[in-house]
Amino acid sequence: MCDTTTVIDDDRHPHTHTTPPEHHHKFPRTAYTPSHETLVTSVENAYNEVRTSRFYTNCMAALHTVQTCLQEALSSDWALSNIRCMVVYGLGSLSGYQGLNSRYQLALSLLLRQCLHGLLHPPEAYDPVFTDIDGDVLQQLDVHVIPTNEKGRRVVTEPTLFYLPHCEAELTDALLEANWREGQLLNVIIIGMRGGYGFVCGICGLWNL
Ligand SMILES: C[S@@+](CC[C@H](N)C(=O)[O-])C[C@H]1O[C@@H](n2cnc3c(N)ncnc32)[C@H](O)[C@@H]1O
User: Fold this and answer.
1) Residues sharing a CB contact under 8 Å with residue 179, sequence separation 6 or more, in sequence order
2) How far apart are CA 33 and CA 95, in angstroms?
3) pLDDT for position 161
4) Which of 52, 63, 109, 170 is the most buried (most CB within 10 A)?
5) Where are the beta strands (DSSP E) in 1-40?
6) How far apart are CA 8 and CA 122, in angstroms?
Protein backbone atom coordinates (compact mmCIF):
# COMPACT_ATOMS: atom_id res chain seq x y z
CA MET A 1 0.00 0.00 0.00
CA CYS A 2 1.37 3.40 -0.82
CA ASP A 3 1.65 6.22 1.66
CA THR A 4 -1.34 8.53 1.46
CA THR A 5 0.68 11.38 2.89
CA THR A 6 2.12 13.22 -0.07
CA VAL A 7 4.78 15.89 0.22
CA ILE A 8 4.42 18.72 -2.25
CA ASP A 9 7.45 20.53 -3.63
CA ASP A 10 6.94 23.94 -2.11
CA ASP A 11 9.57 26.02 -3.84
CA ARG A 12 6.75 28.25 -5.02
CA HIS A 13 4.96 28.32 -1.71
CA PRO A 14 3.81 31.78 -0.66
CA HIS A 15 6.01 31.63 2.43
CA THR A 16 9.09 31.43 0.22
CA HIS A 17 8.29 34.52 -1.85
CA THR A 18 11.27 36.67 -1.06
CA THR A 19 10.63 38.98 -4.00
CA PRO A 20 6.92 39.74 -4.21
CA PRO A 21 5.68 40.66 -7.67
CA GLU A 22 5.19 44.30 -8.52
CA HIS A 23 1.49 44.41 -7.71
CA HIS A 24 2.19 43.57 -4.08
CA HIS A 25 4.38 46.61 -3.54
CA LYS A 26 1.22 48.62 -2.99
CA PHE A 27 1.19 47.02 0.48
CA PRO A 28 3.93 48.85 2.40
CA ARG A 29 5.45 47.33 5.51
CA THR A 30 3.92 50.07 7.63
CA ALA A 31 0.46 49.88 9.20
CA TYR A 32 -1.97 50.37 6.35
CA THR A 33 -5.52 49.33 5.58
CA PRO A 34 -6.06 48.68 1.88
CA SER A 35 -9.48 49.02 0.35
CA HIS A 36 -11.71 46.07 -0.25
CA GLU A 37 -11.23 46.49 -4.03
CA THR A 38 -7.44 46.58 -3.72
CA LEU A 39 -7.48 43.35 -1.75
CA VAL A 40 -9.77 41.58 -4.20
CA THR A 41 -7.54 42.63 -7.09
CA SER A 42 -4.47 41.43 -5.21
CA VAL A 43 -6.05 38.02 -4.55
CA GLU A 44 -7.07 37.77 -8.22
CA ASN A 45 -3.51 38.57 -9.30
CA ALA A 46 -2.19 35.94 -6.89
CA TYR A 47 -4.73 33.46 -8.26
CA ASN A 48 -3.41 33.92 -11.80
CA GLU A 49 0.16 33.66 -10.62
CA VAL A 50 -0.38 30.50 -8.58
CA ARG A 51 -2.46 28.88 -11.34
CA THR A 52 0.50 28.96 -13.72
CA SER A 53 3.15 28.01 -11.14
CA ARG A 54 5.09 24.78 -10.80
CA PHE A 55 3.97 24.68 -7.18
CA TYR A 56 0.35 24.42 -8.26
CA THR A 57 1.16 21.71 -10.81
CA ASN A 58 2.91 19.76 -8.04
CA CYS A 59 0.01 20.34 -5.71
CA MET A 60 -2.49 18.91 -8.19
CA ALA A 61 -0.20 15.95 -8.90
CA ALA A 62 0.02 15.24 -5.16
CA LEU A 63 -3.75 15.33 -4.79
CA HIS A 64 -4.11 12.86 -7.62
CA THR A 65 -1.47 10.62 -6.05
CA VAL A 66 -3.52 10.60 -2.85
CA GLN A 67 -6.57 9.69 -4.89
CA THR A 68 -4.78 6.78 -6.58
CA CYS A 69 -3.35 5.55 -3.27
CA LEU A 70 -6.75 5.62 -1.65
CA GLN A 71 -8.30 3.72 -4.49
CA GLU A 72 -5.62 1.05 -4.13
CA ALA A 73 -5.79 0.95 -0.34
CA LEU A 74 -9.56 0.81 -0.12
CA SER A 75 -10.13 -1.12 -3.34
CA SER A 76 -12.75 1.48 -4.07
CA ASP A 77 -13.58 4.21 -6.49
CA TRP A 78 -12.77 6.95 -3.96
CA ALA A 79 -12.23 10.19 -5.85
CA LEU A 80 -11.50 13.82 -5.20
CA SER A 81 -14.98 14.44 -6.53
CA ASN A 82 -16.26 12.66 -3.39
CA ILE A 83 -15.10 15.59 -1.26
CA ARG A 84 -18.23 17.39 -0.10
CA CYS A 85 -16.91 20.24 2.06
CA MET A 86 -13.86 22.45 2.24
CA VAL A 87 -12.67 24.28 5.36
CA VAL A 88 -9.76 26.72 5.60
CA TYR A 89 -8.44 27.39 9.09
CA GLY A 90 -5.69 29.87 9.92
CA LEU A 91 -5.50 31.90 6.73
CA GLY A 92 -4.50 35.01 8.64
CA SER A 93 -5.62 38.52 7.77
CA LEU A 94 -5.48 39.44 4.09
CA SER A 95 -4.62 43.06 4.79
CA GLY A 96 -1.27 44.74 4.54
CA TYR A 97 2.15 43.42 3.76
CA GLN A 98 1.74 40.77 6.45
CA GLY A 99 -1.21 39.46 4.44
CA LEU A 100 0.93 38.53 1.46
CA ASN A 101 1.03 34.86 2.45
CA SER A 102 -2.66 34.88 3.23
CA ARG A 103 -3.59 36.31 -0.16
CA TYR A 104 -1.60 33.61 -1.94
CA GLN A 105 -3.06 30.95 0.32
CA LEU A 106 -6.54 32.23 -0.38
CA ALA A 107 -5.71 32.11 -4.10
CA LEU A 108 -4.70 28.46 -3.71
CA SER A 109 -7.94 27.79 -1.81
CA LEU A 110 -9.92 29.21 -4.72
CA LEU A 111 -7.96 27.03 -7.16
CA LEU A 112 -8.51 23.93 -5.04
CA ARG A 113 -12.20 24.67 -4.99
CA GLN A 114 -12.20 24.59 -8.80
CA CYS A 115 -11.09 20.97 -8.88
CA LEU A 116 -13.48 19.73 -6.17
CA HIS A 117 -16.54 19.10 -8.29
CA GLY A 118 -18.51 17.41 -5.51
CA LEU A 119 -18.60 20.34 -3.08
CA LEU A 120 -22.08 20.85 -1.67
CA HIS A 121 -21.51 24.48 -0.74
CA PRO A 122 -18.83 27.18 -0.93
CA PRO A 123 -15.61 26.78 1.06
CA GLU A 124 -15.69 27.98 4.67
CA ALA A 125 -12.91 29.84 6.43
CA TYR A 126 -12.06 30.98 9.93
CA ASP A 127 -9.23 32.82 11.58
CA PRO A 128 -9.66 34.78 14.81
CA VAL A 129 -7.70 37.65 13.26
CA PHE A 130 -10.09 38.20 10.35
CA THR A 131 -11.15 41.84 10.07
CA ASP A 132 -14.43 43.15 8.70
CA ILE A 133 -12.68 43.90 5.40
CA ASP A 134 -11.33 40.34 5.27
CA GLY A 135 -14.90 39.14 5.76
CA ASP A 136 -16.15 41.34 2.91
CA VAL A 137 -13.39 40.16 0.57
CA LEU A 138 -14.02 36.52 1.41
CA GLN A 139 -17.73 36.95 0.89
CA GLN A 140 -17.15 38.57 -2.51
CA LEU A 141 -14.96 35.62 -3.49
CA ASP A 142 -17.70 33.24 -2.35
CA VAL A 143 -15.91 31.95 0.74
CA HIS A 144 -18.17 31.70 3.79
CA VAL A 145 -16.72 33.02 7.05
CA ILE A 146 -17.42 30.59 9.90
CA PRO A 147 -19.11 32.71 12.60
CA THR A 148 -17.58 31.01 15.65
CA ASN A 149 -14.18 29.78 16.71
CA GLU A 150 -14.43 26.01 16.36
CA LYS A 151 -10.87 25.70 17.69
CA GLY A 152 -10.32 23.14 14.96
CA ARG A 153 -12.76 20.72 16.52
CA ARG A 154 -15.16 20.32 13.63
CA VAL A 155 -16.62 16.82 13.45
CA VAL A 156 -17.21 15.80 9.86
CA THR A 157 -19.46 13.05 8.59
CA GLU A 158 -18.71 13.61 4.92
CA PRO A 159 -15.35 13.78 3.13
CA THR A 160 -13.96 17.22 3.92
CA LEU A 161 -10.80 18.92 2.72
CA PHE A 162 -9.15 20.97 5.44
CA TYR A 163 -6.54 23.46 4.31
CA LEU A 164 -4.41 24.63 7.26
CA PRO A 165 -1.73 26.89 5.80
CA HIS A 166 1.19 27.17 8.22
CA CYS A 167 -1.07 26.50 11.19
CA GLU A 168 0.07 25.50 14.63
CA ALA A 169 0.16 21.76 15.32
CA GLU A 170 -2.45 22.24 18.07
CA LEU A 171 -5.08 23.01 15.44
CA THR A 172 -4.35 19.80 13.53
CA ASP A 173 -4.30 17.86 16.81
CA ALA A 174 -7.72 19.23 17.75
CA LEU A 175 -9.15 18.31 14.36
CA LEU A 176 -7.79 14.78 14.54
CA GLU A 177 -8.94 14.29 18.11
CA ALA A 178 -12.47 15.46 17.27
CA ASN A 179 -12.72 12.89 14.48
CA TRP A 180 -10.77 10.06 16.10
CA ARG A 181 -13.28 7.29 15.49
CA GLU A 182 -13.04 4.23 13.33
CA GLY A 183 -14.18 5.01 9.82
CA GLN A 184 -14.63 8.70 10.53
CA LEU A 185 -11.01 9.74 10.02
CA LEU A 186 -11.40 8.78 6.40
CA ASN A 187 -13.54 11.89 6.06
CA VAL A 188 -10.65 14.13 7.09
CA ILE A 189 -8.32 15.18 4.29
CA ILE A 190 -5.71 17.69 5.38
CA ILE A 191 -3.46 19.93 3.36
CA GLY A 192 -1.09 21.44 5.85
CA MET A 193 2.39 21.42 7.24
CA ARG A 194 4.31 18.49 8.63
CA GLY A 195 7.46 19.33 10.53
CA GLY A 196 10.37 19.91 8.21
CA TYR A 197 8.68 18.32 5.24
CA GLY A 198 6.79 21.41 4.16
CA PHE A 199 3.46 21.07 2.49
CA VAL A 200 1.67 17.75 2.84
CA CYS A 201 -1.64 16.25 1.94
CA GLY A 202 -3.00 13.18 3.65
CA ILE A 203 -6.07 11.16 4.31
CA CYS A 204 -6.01 10.79 8.06
CA GLY A 205 -7.76 7.46 8.22
CA LEU A 206 -4.84 5.88 6.43
CA TRP A 207 -2.04 7.79 8.06
CA ASN A 208 0.38 5.92 10.23
CA LEU A 209 -0.31 8.37 13.03
C1 LIG B 1 1.37 30.77 11.84
S2 LIG B 1 -0.09 31.69 11.50
C3 LIG B 1 -0.28 31.43 9.74
C4 LIG B 1 -0.95 32.61 9.09
C5 LIG B 1 -0.91 32.54 7.56
N6 LIG B 1 -1.62 31.37 7.09
C7 LIG B 1 0.53 32.52 7.07
O8 LIG B 1 0.99 31.53 6.53
O9 LIG B 1 1.19 33.56 7.24
C10 LIG B 1 -1.36 30.65 12.21
C11 LIG B 1 -2.75 31.23 12.06
O12 LIG B 1 -3.67 30.37 12.73
C13 LIG B 1 -4.67 31.21 13.26
N14 LIG B 1 -5.46 30.51 14.27
C15 LIG B 1 -5.20 30.42 15.60
N16 LIG B 1 -6.20 29.76 16.22
C17 LIG B 1 -7.10 29.43 15.26
C18 LIG B 1 -8.34 28.77 15.28
N19 LIG B 1 -8.87 28.30 16.43
N20 LIG B 1 -9.02 28.60 14.13
C21 LIG B 1 -8.51 29.07 12.98
N22 LIG B 1 -7.32 29.73 12.88
C23 LIG B 1 -6.63 29.91 14.02
C24 LIG B 1 -3.89 32.38 13.79
O25 LIG B 1 -4.70 33.51 14.03
C26 LIG B 1 -2.90 32.61 12.67
O27 LIG B 1 -3.38 33.51 11.71
Assistant:
1) 155, 156, 185, 187, 188, 204
2) 6
3) 94
4) 109
5) 6-8
6) 25
The residues facing 189 across adjacent strands are 161, 203
The strand pairing partners of 88, in sequence order, are 125, 163
Alpha carbon distance 97, 161 (integer Å): 28
Query: Which residue CA neighbors atom 13 of ligand 1 most closely?
Result: 90
Distance CA 124, CA 111 (A): 14
- Determine if ligand 1 sits within 6 Å of the CB of residue 89: yes
Q: Tell which residue, 32, 49, 137, 123, has the closest CA to residue 94.
A: 137
Q: Look at ligand 1, atom 12, and give the residue with the nearest C-alpha.
A: 90
| pLDDT at 208 exceeding the cut of 90 | no
Chain segment 8-22, per-residue pLDDT in tens: 544 444 443 334 444
| Closest atom, ligand 1, to C-alpha of 98 | 9
Is the CB of 124 inside a 6 Å radius of any atom of ligand 1? no
**Does the CA dihedral 39-148-172-157 come out positive or negative?**
negative
CA 63 to ligand 1 center in whole angstroms: 23
